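Quick one:
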Amino acid sequence: MRYPKFLSDSGTIGFVAPAFGCNIEPYKSGFENSLNKWKELGHNIWIGPNVYEGSGIGISNTPKACAEELNRAYCDRESEVLISCGGGELMCEVVPYLDFDRIREAEPKWYMGYSDNTNFTFLLTTLCNTASVYGPCAATFGMEPWHTALHDAYGVLRGTNLTISGYDMWELESLKSEEKPLEPYNLTEEKHLVYGAGEQEAHMSGRLIGGCLDCLSNLVGTRFDQVKPFNSLYAEDGIIWFLECCDLNVMSIRRALWQLDQAGWFNYVKGFIVGRPMLYDQPMFGLDQYEAVMGILGKYDVPVVMDCDFGHLPPAMPLICGSYAQIDAVGDKITIDMKLK
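Output:
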């Protein structure tokens, strides 16, 4: 596994928009305030040409323009790390224009984003054997004050904190709006972990990969699907999957997991951690979000921990896709120790 150098004290942070840009509120103000915060921390800023664009369909610009920005930003030396502006809807259309051969040969660089950014964070790891960070997008760092999860994400980029613990409370309904773009998380819900086997603890270790299930299921069977060879490469370590979803209802979750299962993606699996789904607690025809998962994954007889702190209902633990992780969950507490080996 290739691991990038960490962000230095005065290192330059690059911002790109291969999914949505920060052209509308509340994201524009959030992003601009985040720039102030990065500068206060001593960092320089590089801004890609699509950051304030909104001319694309489901992404900031045309797929080709988005790819050109990312190809350049990842392979040049103008920035030490890259943070994506936001999630999106159709970043999959950018993927065919990405130069993975060039990216594979370039000096590795940390790339952080989540949701639609799975189209790069996951492929960077499985196609280029290069670690990435599944974590907050740029505008989130504009909130006042930062939640612990944002300090954790910054700690991962700096290499000062690679052991992350979950959080006590989470947000079901955001208070952020055009009028209040810097609003912090609205933490109203107590976090309770749910275990697949009905137990109260789980322990697992292995190579950590995953992302947004909405995006992962689209990649199955395409020319960008090299998951089985990747899993075979790390068969001795075993694989821990982290999975979460945005638009999928419980039936869609089950169908998507069935698709990954039938494609052989879960070979050598050592365990699963599953984030809170965006459509939280919305059962259909007697199927809830837990049985949607366990109905497919239960047969593997490995630890499954659900309602974990990552995904579309914040706060979210930053996860290094490609790292070797030791995960310990007891009761409602979870700790992920990520080793760069």
